[in-house]
Amino acid sequence: VLLGRSEGFAFELSASLGITIGLGYATVPRLLARFRAKRILMLSFALYSTGAGALGTLVPSAPGLPQDGHNLGVAFAALAVMGFAISGVSLMPSVLVGQLIDEDAARSGANRSALFLGVTRAFDKWAFGLSSALIAFLFARFGNGAANPLGVQLVGPIAAAVAVFAAVVMSRFPEERVG
Predict the structure, then answer these.
(1) C-alpha 157: how far from its chain's center?
(2) pLDDT tier at 7 (50, 70, 90 boundaries)?
(3) What Cα–Cα distance (Å) separates residue 18 from each residue in 82, 83, 113?
(4) From CA 140, how far away is CA 150, in angstroms rounded?
(5) Predicted pLDDT of residue 176
(6) Closest CA to 174 of 112, 96, 122, 108
(7) Most buried of 15, 83, 118, 120, CB within 10 angstroms?
(8) Alpha-carbon distance 156 to 50, whole Å?
């Protein structure tokens, strides 16, 4: 919508995101050898909010128009940053939950890992549902077409705000006590 390009180009953007997610999956486990999971997760939230926020600077354009170069640069750079962030955000919660499971087992002597994993998956489903509803609301209320693209423009900055909120919430996680 904002870039004025075909679905084929959307595939190229998605592929670039997929490549950086894959590179992130290869990199994040190596980072665990040097940094604690919470720090990697907080860095991932910061990267994600930076990339998603940058998407808010995209303006309606088309190939050859003055804003086209800006839009392409921002889109590819933001998705590259977000790809690395997505890998951290998808891997590190499982590491942190594993730490909680280990601590709980050491304290209680019981194996309640299924409970921890079930609660984690319930929160995942809630978050996916909420994000889908929020995007549907933005598109319905503010538009999602070339003539009225505000809903599309708002997705990135709102996703950035959610990532900042998640980082604030995770900053209270007592990893020093758990891990």
Answers:
(1) 12
(2) confident
(3) 10, 7, 31
(4) 10
(5) 66
(6) 96
(7) 83
(8) 10
